[in-house]
Amino acid sequence: MESRQRNRKNQVHTGNDISPPRTNADRRTPLGADMLSKEEKAAIAAKFGQHEHDTGSPEVQIAQLTRRIALLTEHLREHRHDYHTRRALTKLVGQRRRQLRYLNREDVNRYSTLVSELGLRR
To answer: Phi-psi category of 121—alpha, beta or left, where left has phi over 0 and alpha has psi -120 to 50?
Structure first.
């Protein structure tokens, strides 16, 4: 019996190869590529925060979520069948909706200012 095995695409694969056959998982974006860098987070906090180290106010959180949603949307335009990213995107949209609902309930002026600055359709 030969030591050859067939992989998914019926190509002969011997055990002597250094690298395994390439799959679709190898072509995905690196883990965390769609996340915000520290510099982007700091810039968003400086623009929308109420003070220098503000990371928890609804404005900053909504702005960061909006940026991440934009990155994931761009990723999904290229990789239409990336269902894990699609699920993450829907979760982020839900988080942003809840934050916007909270801000609208607490202070309508801050809400309307933020929505106009971010260009959200609300």
So the answer is: beta
Q: What is the pTM of this model?
A: 0.72
Q: Which of 110, 106, 99, 29 is nearest to 64 (CA)?
A: 99
CATH number at residue 99: 1.10.287.10
- Which stretch of DSSP H or E encloses residue 13? strand 12-13
Evaluate whether residue 13 is within a structural domain.
no
Looking at the structure of the chain, the number of domains it has is 1
Q: Distance between CA atoms of 105 and 84, rounded to whole angstroms?
A: 32
Q: What is the pLDDT of residues 91-106, one digit of tens each?
A: 999 999 999 999 999 9
Q: Are strands 12-13 and 5-6 parallel, antiparallel or unpaired?
A: antiparallel
